[in-house]
Amino acid sequence: MNTLTPDRLASADYKTIFDRQRQHAPVMALTTAKERIDRLKRIQNWIASHEDSIKKALYDDFRKPASEAVLTELYGLNGEINYTIKHLAQWMKPQRVPTPINLIGMRSQVRYEPKGNVLVIAPWNYPFILCLKPLMSAIAAGNVVMVKPSELTPNTTRIIQQLVADLFPPEEVAVFAGDASVATALLELPFNHIFFTGSPAVGKIVMAAAAKHLTSVTLELGGKSPCIVDETADIQQAAEQLAWGKGVNNGQTCIAPDYLLIHESVKPQFVQAFQGALQRMYNPNGQGIQASDSYCRMVNRRHFERVRDLVNDAVRQGATVSVGGQMAESENFIEPTLLEHVTDDMRVMQDEIFGPVLPLQTYTDKDEAIRRIRQREKPLALYIHSRNRQNIQYFMERTTAGDTVINDVMLQFNDPEMPFGGVNNSGIGKSNGFFSFQEYSNMRGTMERQFGTMKMLYPPYTNRIAGLLKFLVKYL
Q1: Which 3 state secondary structure label does DSSP give 216?
Q2: What residues act catalytically?
Q3: What is the per-residue pLDDT across 358-368, written as a single tens digit (0 to 9) for each?
Q4: Stretch (H or E) spanning 404
C-alpha cells in the first residue's frame, strides 16, 4: 500500500513526510471505529501470516528463542489488539459527565479526539512489541504516526518497515530507520505527541526537545526496580519467579527486578532455590546454560561489556558471585548471576543493570528495606514477596512505584486493564488498554445549554446580585 519502499522512505525528507501527515491528520480524525478496527485487524493478520519471519528476525538480532519471542513479543501484542478492537467503539463515544447544580440547564460531555501527529521512538530490548503496541494504540485513537525503531535490532526493524509498507500509505504511518541522528532530526519537528521508550537519560533529551514545541509526551523509562522477599515468603516460588524474571530476554527488560532486598533469615534458602531454578530452566540436560536453546544473548558487544564491567567492578570492591558468573565474549553470553555482599557505592547498585545480574542485599527490619528503596529514584516497578498481609500493606504504604506486583514478577505489562508506566524518573504517562487510548487523545470537554440562562448574574452588579452570589457561595 505504501507508495514508497522501506529503503526510499528511510531516506525521504522527514519534514516532507511530516507535512503530508499533518495534511492527512484531519482525515484520520474523522475515521469511524469500524475503519480504525479494520486497520488494527490488518496489522493482526499481517503478524499472523509473517510469524516465522518475525521469530527469525528476533533470533538473528539477539538469539531470542522462538517460544520466548511468542511469549514476550507476540502474545501480549495480540491480546492488546483484541482488547482494543473489543472496546474501541465504546471508547470513542462522547462520555456524559455530571453537571453541578449551579450550572443547571447545561449538558456536559468529554469527547476523545486524536492529538494529530504522533512520533513513536521504540527501544531495542523488545523491538517488535514496544514498537507495534504504541503504534497500534495511536492508530486506534485516530492519529497519524511516524515511527523510529532501534538501530540495534536491524533485522526486526526491517520486518517493521515491511509491515508498514504493506499496510499503510506514508501519510498515515511512516517508518524511519537509522541511528540516533535520525531520532534527533525527528525530534526537531512539531509533533502533537511523542511516545518514547528507553532510558531515563535519553528520556530527558526527548522531553527537552518536546518542550520546544510544548509537545505532550509519554515516557516509558526504567531505573532500578527493587524486589522485596520477606521472612514469610514462599522462597521456592520467589526464587523460581526471580530466576525467570532475570533470565527471560537475558534480563534486558525495563521492569525486570533490578536488585533484591531479602530478609537475612531466608537468604541461604533463597540462594539454593535460585540456583536450582536456573538449572531446571536453562540446564536440564547438564550441558551448561550456554548450550541452552531457551536462553538468549545480550543484544551486542557494547551491552555485553557494560554488564560485564558492572560485575567486575562489584567483585573488585568485595562482592561475591554466589550463582552463575560465566561469560563468553564471542557470543555476548552472560550466565544468570547472583551477587552477594554488594554495597550501595558499587556501580551495580547505582546503574540500571539491564542484564541477567541480580545483586542481593539483606535486611533485618522492614524500615531498613524501605529506607534503601526511598534513597533511590522512584522505580518503574516494585515487587513484594510475602505471605503476611500486614507486611505487604506496610511496604505498599511507604513506597512509590509505577506498578507493583505481589508474589510474582513482570506480569503488569500484559494486563490491558492495568495502567502501565512509571513515575518521575521512571516515566511519565500511562499505557495499556484505555489508558493508551487516553494518552493519544485530547480529552475535550464540551458543554451545551439545554434550558435556562445565567442572565440573572449579568452586570450591572446590583445588591440583588450580590445577595444571590452570597447565597450561591454559601450553599452551592
Answers
A1: strand
A2: 220, 254
A3: 999 999 999 99
A4: strand 403-406
